[in-house]
Amino acid sequence: MSSDKKSMARGMARMLSIISANGTTVPPLPASSVSSPFLGQSVIPLVNKLQDIFSQLGSASTIDLPQVAVVGSQSSGKSSVLEALVGRDFLPRGQDICTRRPLVLQLVQTVQKADESSELIEWGEFLHLPGRRFSDFSAIRKEIQLETDRELGSNKGISEKQLRLKIFSPHVLNMTMVDLPGITKVPVGDQPSDIEARVRSMILSYIKHETCIILAVSPANADLANSDALQMARIADPDGSRTIGVITKLDIMDRGTNARNFLLGNVVPLRLGYVGVVNRSQEDIATNRSISEALVYEENFFRSRPVYHSLSERCGVPQLAKKLNSILVQHIRAILPDLKARISTQIIMLQKELASYGEVTDSKSGQGALLLNIITKYSYGFQSIVDGKYEEWSTTELSGGARIHYIFQAIFVRSLEEVDPCEELSDEDIRIAIHNSTGPRNALFVPEVPFELLVRRQIARLLEPSLQCARFIYDELVKISRRCETLELERFPYLQRRIEEVVTSFLQEGLAPAETMISHLIEMEMDYINTSHPNFVGGNKAVDIALQELRGVKVPMSDIAKTKVYMISMLKRLPSSISGNSATGGSWGITSIFSSSEVRTSNSINRELAVNREYAEDVQGSAEHVFATIQLHEPPAVLRSPDAQTERETLEIAVTRLLLKSYYDIVRKIIQDAVPKAIMHFLVNHVKRELHSVFIRKLYRESLFEEMMQEKEDVAVNRKHCKEILWVLQQAAWFIVILFAVSLSRNH
């Protein structure tokens, strides 16, 4: 052996000794095995060890290791092939289904030392009976039957639970095989009516994996094209790249026929080819004919038939063993990189999961440090999510602070912009409001009172959506608080519940002043109607726009600038009553538009009214002695204006609408700006700034440490289970390193 290979062998031996020191039993790996003609002498035992390691995980293992799955029908001779490969009788026999659960069979080649006798020891070991050796192979058969009956009963039921057997012998080549239940058509005993479908499903669960080599066993005295084993293999391995065909019972073919075409792949082609074998007959088994005698008979059979002479590498159990060993080794080398990557990925995931469970701490100082760390992470996480600095952002939906911004702009602001303050206000409503505001007198001008009354009602409508916006933000903060709950926090249910209570209470404390501020904002706008606001349309513009609309002239607001002469000329076309003005009245609107020189003065109006009163008195005095008493109808309980809407009222209504819309738009913009500011100040930013301080004040108390830091019951169980799986995978990772070393040494 070269110095490089010796050095590599010594390094591998050191790695194995380290693993053994960690509590893992590793079969000795002699340095000479690195240069052995069969790489399987060093590689396959290590894979077998990986099988043992992963068997500790049971169903928790998601790593598929290289193995050979033996598939065939009940009468195909499957068991005889396995026994021939082992060289011993050890499998249950019978007329009905014998393999009732998957049997994982690991063959380990033992090495004879120079000082040992020629009679080598062979034995078997079951995984469910660690440390116990079975040197009597009939006892192995009995234990298989007993363990199967313990699991399933004695009435032919089947199970997917594995039975693991390791056989040590100098007469075997290293490999791992899985003996699967034979495909059966008719249920017996307590087997379900769909037994065939169940068996096929079980077989497929093994052979579907790319790491599995399929050993498809078919009898030579049956139609190979309709072989159950080959049909199953074709489903899982359509191109035949990992299927080896085994043709059994060549010695009982019809006289004058042979299996040459089968073995050459002329009937059903397989990339890995076929091997033909001769099984022991039922009579041979009944008369206890040994496997060694059967192998001699097989060798003589092929020698005595010239048709098989040119196919010697495809005939006989020894050739099948060599082929399986060689293909399994090649398969192992091909999948090693992927196997290593999958194990490494699982180790990283488990390390993260184990870290999330944390370590058990019983001291007050340790509990206090852990509590402080948890609430600090929670507070920082809350702030990060709100500010958009969280590391685990979704790319499919808005979250955190982005949702808050969406509520402000896309929901609150847009909803207010879509509201028409006059939408639910009819002309009749405005007309009645104007009449009611004048009392017992007839209105000479557009009065101020109905405008203020109506605009206050519209401003009041802004309160509910503003408060609703605050509640929406509150709900979003509650959702954000739940996103801050880490796996570490979930360990402690009482602490988690207390944190939820503190956060909920603190958010409510922030919501109350925000709602109060919003209410004050609306009340402020309602208490003072500022008609001097620079953006308010004002009397002049309102009347001008109203006149243009009544005349059917549509002009933009920016083009409404008109001279007083033009406005007066427009008004003169209307009845004289419309353009009246009071020099001393308290009303605004039209009063503020015209001076005394541009319209009739109040003195002329008073003189006209005085003349009318004198005439009315004369008529009343002269008619007293002529006419009878006139009876009036009593006014109805609900009184509405009976008269048709006059042209003057039409103008008043139009002006009032314009004034309402103008002032409402001013207030709406103020509220759209002020409400989000109030919510951010009193609720969002306040919680961000003070949350950690509140946690310290309410939770960080030594008297509460023990109660709050009590773990959930399943956390300790999960931590232990996670450690066990991680330990197993770390062992597997070590063995993968060794496998790589062995594989590289073979290349060199």
From TrEMBL:
Presence of the UniProt keyword Nucleotide-binding in the record: yes
Keywords, in A-Z order: GTP-binding, Nucleotide-binding
Superkingdom: Eukaryota
InterPro entries the UniProt entry points to: Dynamin, Dynamin_GTPase, Dynamin_N, Dynamin_stalk, G_DYNAMIN_dom, GED, GED_dom, P-loop_NTPase
Pfam families according to UniProt: Dynamin_M (PF01031), Dynamin_N (PF00350), GED (PF02212)
Keyword presence, Repressor: no
Residues in GED domain copies: 653-744
Signal sequence coordinates: none
Record domain Dynamin-type G: where: 62-337
Gene3D superfamilies: Dynamin, middle domain, P-loop containing nucleotide triphosphate hydrolases
Protein name: Dynamin-related protein 3A-like
Species this protein is from: Sphagnum jensenii
